[in-house]
Amino acid sequence: MITFGGMSLIFAALAWFFKKAESGSRIFFVFALLHLLSSIMLMVNSLFPSSCCAAWLPLMPHTNPLCSYVLLIESVVVMAVAWYNTDFFMRHEEIPYRHKSPIYHASIIGFIGAMDFAILSDNLGMVWVFIELSTLLSALLIAHHNSAHSLEATWKYVFICSVGIAFAFAGIVFLLIATDGNLDLTTMQLDRNKLFAVKIALPFLIIGFGTKAGLAPVHNWLPDAHSEAPTPVSALLSASLLNSALLPIVRILQLTGGTGLENFASAILLTMGFLSLIVAAIFIPHAYNYKRMLAYSSVENMGILAIALGLNCQSGFLIHMAGHSFIKCALFLIAGNILSMYGSKLIKEVSGMVRIHKGLAYLYLVGILAIMGFVPFMLFVSEFVIIAALFNSNKFLCVLFIILLTFVMYGLGRNMLKMVRGKSSLYKSDYRFKTAAIAPIVILLLIAAASFGAMMYRGVFENIL
Amino acid sequence: MEIFEFIVTLLLVVTLLRISISGRLEVYIKMLSLQGLLLFSLVFFTVSHESYVTLAVAIIETLLLKAIFVPFYLNKVIKENNIKRETEPYVPHIFSLLMVSLGIGLSLAAAFYMKQEIPEVKIVLLGSGIAMILCGMFVILSRKKIITHVMGYCVLENGIFLLSLSAAKELPVIVSLGVALDAFIWVLLAGLLVRVIRTELKSQSIDELKGLKN
Amino acid sequence: MKSIIFNIVFLFVLPYLMYGIAKKVKAFFARRKGPSIWQYGYDLAKLLRKEEVLSDFSCLRNGGVLTLSGVLAAAMFIPQISGSSILNLGYYDYILFIYMLSFSRFFTIITAMESGCSFEGMGSSRELIFSVTGEIALMMTVASLAFYGKAENFNGIFNAISNGGTEGLIIAIIASFILFVLMLLEGSRMPIDDPETHLELTMIHEAMVLDQSGPQLAFMSFSGMVKVYLFASFIISLILATCKTSSYYWLFFILGIIIISVIIGLIESLQARLRMVHVQQYILFSAAISLILLLSVIIFKV
Amino acid sequence: MSIWQQPIQQVLILSLILAAGGIISAFFNSRVRGRIFAVIAGAVGAYSTLLMVLGIRGQEFFEYSLGSMNFSLDLVGRFFIATVGLGIFFSALYNASLSGNSRAFEQKNRFYYGSLGIFGASMLQVLLVKIDGTLNSALLFMSAWEIMSLFSFLLIICSDEVKGVSGKGLTYLLVMHISAAFLMTGFIAISGNPFGGDLYGFWALLIGFGIKLGLFPSHFYMADSYETAPGASAGLISGVMINMAIYGILRTFLVCVKYAGIFGYILLIIGIVSALWGVLSALAENRAKRVLAGSSMENMGLIIIGVGVFTIAEYVYNVHTAALMALAGVLIHSLNHSLFKAQLFYSVDLIRNHTGSTDLDKLGGLGKTFNNLKRSMLLGTLGISSLPPLNGFIGKFLLYASFFELLFNVESFKVALICVFCLVILGTVGALSLFVFVKLYSMIFLGAEREKFPQMRKAVENRLNSITLSAMSLLSLTIGVAPILFAYNRGKLTNVLYELTLNAFLIIGFSLLVWGFRHLLVKLNGSRKSPTWGCGYSNITSRMEYTADSFSLPLMRLLDKIFPRKENNEPVTELYPADITRTYEVRNPIKESIDFICSKFNDLLGKLQFLQSGLMQNYLWISIIFLVLAILYAIFSSSTAGGVK
User: Fold this and answer.
1) Cβ–Cβ of B213/D616 closer than 8 Å?
2) What is the ipTM of this complex?
3) C244 Ramachandran zone, left/alpha/beta (phi>0; psi -120 to 50)
4) Cβ contacts of residue D247 below 8 Å, gap of 6+?
């Protein structure tokens, strides 16, 4: 944990120091590379404790596989975003903001460092502190363009998330009472007779961290923040920040395993999951802005993750989290390319992409089909597993789940076809994208497809971790 | 020590009532600094400090941060952006007073209800902590100017700090230091945002911040 | 081998003989002498010698050929004059019989539509609609007869009826009534369609051959005659199966053919044509009777 | 055993070759690409038919497992592999023959070949997966199934129709998703105890496969999606992909026997209703592709009747001869159906390319310009209306035979009534399909030209597509004439098939005989052409010809309630209007009601937009209310000491 923290602090300072945009993005790229390497080593270390890298990482304590899994997903996403970022500031619409590049790069590296701490640290208090810190740092990023809309989005993002997290702290306090003072997640023990305090703490914790994870009744900041932020930031936000906010809930649920409280916790999670599916079903078909549509699809997928948690279906949860992060990050990067090509975020003004830039149009088609949960990608496997779990527990919920998924699919499909087909609203432009803009998307989709193949080969229904 | 705690929490509740009545920003800031002082006194006298480090952290957090720095910074922000003094609430003051007192009554009742369930919690502190949280939320929800939202959030922070005191279990030093650091950065960021919103959107109230709807 | 030659010879003689007898009966009722019973044969021979005139629009010139070949193939399965069919196949030859008839119907309509004139279109659309309702009746009858005798081919059916006693008699009578109606439908005889009418708007079968000439016309009219002959032989074999005549079978068969053509002639001279809507009801009436036949078979059998 | 004894590996390699071929051929220009992929697909098609023919000899059952994925192959699988192989080959060959130089055509062609290869590969995968009731096999089957329906969606999307493609494509995708959802829940339900399986599992699987087949209640999407799909892919989807659902039903019913008995009767009922509805809707339609879509529904209804008879004969009364006949009928009919349905779609598409419309009221008299097409389509029409010499008759005859077998061997009142009733339905559906396809054929090729098409070029047919279409019709003729190759030593089935071969030779012999006789007479007396006589009309114009609508009007008037017709004709304004166009189209009441429900639901959701109101205070209010509710729930539920559910 110290290596990650130290690394992010040094690189943040470096980025702050260099004024030019190219150097800032290059530093960020190097940081991402190191981050990926160390998280791979951490993952190997946590799965096979006595392996070779243990010697390499003296400062790396042995963490449980779940946290290193989430960290690995986050570092892959960071790598893709960093590679995309190298070309981001060279684009024509980013020229007026080049002077803000040092703040931008410093806060993005700090933001990633805060997320690493939030994922890795064992003490629930520290997890809370770093999630609060990541909120504040990402607020700076969202306000990067400081247009009217992005400022409003930042204000709402900061405010709703801080209020939510304050409630989470109240939950931690109640939890403190139950575990008489010990907040270390790995060694925490809930004694039997103080269950009532835990029962009061759970709603606070789940709804507190749920606001940060974008679950339904408290999700309203997510569409504004993710659609107004610059492309790399919105990709990072929706691919890794939501997962890191969901992680504490998972670890707390692992604690309440035996105490007969899990029905209560799963009841809340299931309601929040289905509420977010309903919200997505309401807003996606009527979305007027494709980045907002993608943000609502993040709300939907977080809802599916909450349902998987509520059903305690572990393999479905893990596959879906990874699948959603990779594909959603790829989709937001594609949306960034569309924005820089068409210059407008409205679905009405973007049409006939097939005629303008065939490669991007096919990528967008494949990306939307992937997020819908079609086959060659991971989400199909996880949805199958979750439907299997749902079917065994409660048939009515399973039917509701499928109907809501169909509505979301209808909305995504309709908007995507409107943008891809038809006469092009743009004059004949020979818009050329650099490799840095296209390569990360292709690699992310390939990872999703490859892991689908691995799932198929390995068979999903034996337990994984 | 029981009586001292009781008096301090009583004073805290009075500051809450004062905030809910007044419409002027200076009163809000004064009340915030008063709350910081009271919290400092509570921490300083009641909690038994084994090592000097926890005592130093407590002092920094309550006295320096909540009592001195935050009111000073808020004053500076109000003067720079020459924000009008009026807080233009959605509902008349009498109604907000009624609501806050109802909140206080409810939270104390809830605290007593929880007495049988969790014996070793300081009930009075718990009740007033919940009351401060409710009042902070009410201030955010019922005022139009965004600077009052910042102050409402600070009241909420104080309420949560009081709640952690009521648990009578000492938070680890790093965690309380982290909480203080977060509150500090939060206020700085809020001030920065208020100034930027003022320059970009030329407004101070929430009405201009309604653009993003479906 | 002798019975096969016997069958084929009479196959090419009896059909136009039936039409001739019917014409003779009509003449008798109109108190005039009427043409000789072999007149239709002479017409066919005349047509075969004439030059063939095709319309400009025609592109498939062999419609008539395939119609006749379909009907001749259907003739292979029905037991005719010699008591047994020419090609007695073992399994479900009644289904083959039905589908050969629809094969020839397919090509009559193709040749009709080729000429591109509105009367042919009208005739073929009517022909198709009536054949759909006719198909219901035919299939129901064949299925119930087969179910009665648990027979996989025509001979099986007739053997079952012959040793079925009174049950067999009742079934044979009901079935022959339905088949008589279907015969009139296939050959487009009087109650369904007037062969001698000159009003194109009312024609069904004649409208389809309006534009044919020479050998094609001969083939198509001869195939109409053969269809009537086949259904007649089906009825007669049913009736003869009930009264166990073994010797002189062919004599009784020819007698039956004459009686049926006399009945056709009687109907044509005594009854006017049904209106177009009533024709459909008439055929559905026969389908209803076939339903009664089925129920009776089930009562006897199960 | 070496690779050659292992048919499953061979088929896996075949599917890899197909997928790779599709992707590689996408990189060449359109002229070369078509031929390359056609050659690859040809090899795959030939090999798969070889597999089927060899397979008929032996009844072996092959197993193979790769990691956790286990595959299996038996006779039923081989038939469908042959269908896929042939279908892909002919579709590729036909598409290679299309020529176009516009940029859009180039792009579409590249997209088409890419997805065609993977489409074929996914269908082969679907056939290989071993369905043994475990969740893993269900997941593998569903993933192959989803790839297939996804690529069929892509094949539909790359159509050159002007408007409405995205809407219809999207409806198709959503319907496929719903069917996949049913299949998923069905598999999960029967995966509980594979050979028992509760009733819900059966119903879900039946509905899932039924939606894919386009059986009665879920047929509304078929006409639209087949009309927008480009000719080559419409033929492929309606010919080959639908059979996968047949394979699915057969495979799942072979695995779970407990409820198979009851489901036999349900299948019969659904089969009858969809066969009748399909043929009547084909009769009502007046656009060629919609007619073919209706006839797909009809043929699938017939095959489902066959499957129903098979389940009843096998699991309820175990009359093995009837079951064998029914299974043979189902397999042969699905193979034949894919052949002549694809051929008809390609011919209609060829006409559409040259005349620009598939509306039967506009086409007519094309027999002269499309010489080869006229002959091959005649054979195709004979096949689809299942008349003797062609292969359609074989499948239908076996269905008849299985009903008769069942009728003779079972002594129960109920079965006798059902069998005779089904026989009558088969007969009427046969007569009606004759009606439909005579109308289709005569409206396109025969009579006079109803409308002049300016852009119709004289040199209409190039050599390749006439070869493709005549090859398909000759293949179906050979299957029709020699069904004996299907019967190895199958007892009664062999005799029946031997009899069918004899019957086919009979009809061909008679035709040649009479044709020779006519040829002799024409040589003697000569033959000449003159304008149509038409009972004394001075000059027959094409406007006097019988149109498609009037051809089927008498029967359609009876069914006005089921197939209402919407007359959209312009209001007459002047006293003597120059020319009034009266067009009508057949309304599909089920589709309209579903669209109505969906739009109502959409507006309802639209009204809920106010939730994202933009004002931050509202959001905070919602979160506080939810928090308070959760805590109250926590307090009140605590009295039950944790047991909440």
Assistant:
1) no
2) 0.86
3) left
4) D76, D77, D80, D126, D127
Tokens 């999207």 correspond to what residue? Answer: D170
Q: How far apart are CA D229 and CA D293, in angstroms?
A: 11
Partner residues linked to D585 by β-bridges: D566
Domain that holds residue B133: 2-200
- Looking at the whole model, is its pTM more than 0.90? no
Interface probe with A: pick from B140, B143, B214, most Cβ of A within 10 Å:
B214
Work out the minimum CA distance from A170 to partner chain B, whole angstroms.
6
Q: Where are the domains of chain D?
A: 1-130, 615-645
Phi, psi of D528 (to 5 degrees): -135, 165
Q: What is the pLDDT of residues D497-543, one digit of tens each?
A: 888 888 889 899 999 999 999 888 888 888 888 877 766 666 667 77
610-639 in chain D: CB under 8 A from chain B: 611-617, 620-621, 624
Please, are residues A101 and A131 in contact by the beta-carbon 8 Å criterion? no
Judged against a pLDDT cut of 80, whether residue C135 lies above it is answered with yes
Q: Which residues of D touch B212 (CB under 8 A)?
A: 614
Cα D179 to Cα A104, D186, D598, distances in angstroms: 48, 10, 17
The reply to whether residue D527 touches residue C54, judged by beta carbons under 8 angstroms, is yes
B206 inside domain:
no
Which of B113, B140, B145, B182 is the best mutation test for A, with the most CBs of A within 10 A? B182
Enter the tokens of residue D72.
């299996």
Closest CA to A243 of A301, A203, A184: A301
D contacts of A207 (beta carbons < 8 Å):
623, 626-627, 630
Neighbours of chain B (3+ CB pairs under 8 A): A, D
Task: Answer yes or no: is B205 within a domain.
Answer: no
Q: What average pLDDT does the structure give for chain C?
A: 87
The C-alpha angle A324, A326, A328, rounded to 5 degrees, equals 60
**Residue B213: inside a domain:** no
How far B213 CA lies from chain D's nearest CA (Å)?
Answer: 5
3-state helix, strand, coil in chain D (%, to 5): 75, 5, 20
Q: Contact, D232 vs D89, CB < 8 A?
A: no
- Please state, as a whole number, how many other Cβ atoms lie within 10 Å of the Cβ of residue C7: 23
Beta bridge partners of D287: D359
Q: How many domains does chain B have?
A: 1
Domain with C78, as residue range(s), is: 2-301
Three-class SS state of B142? helix
Amino acid at D354: H
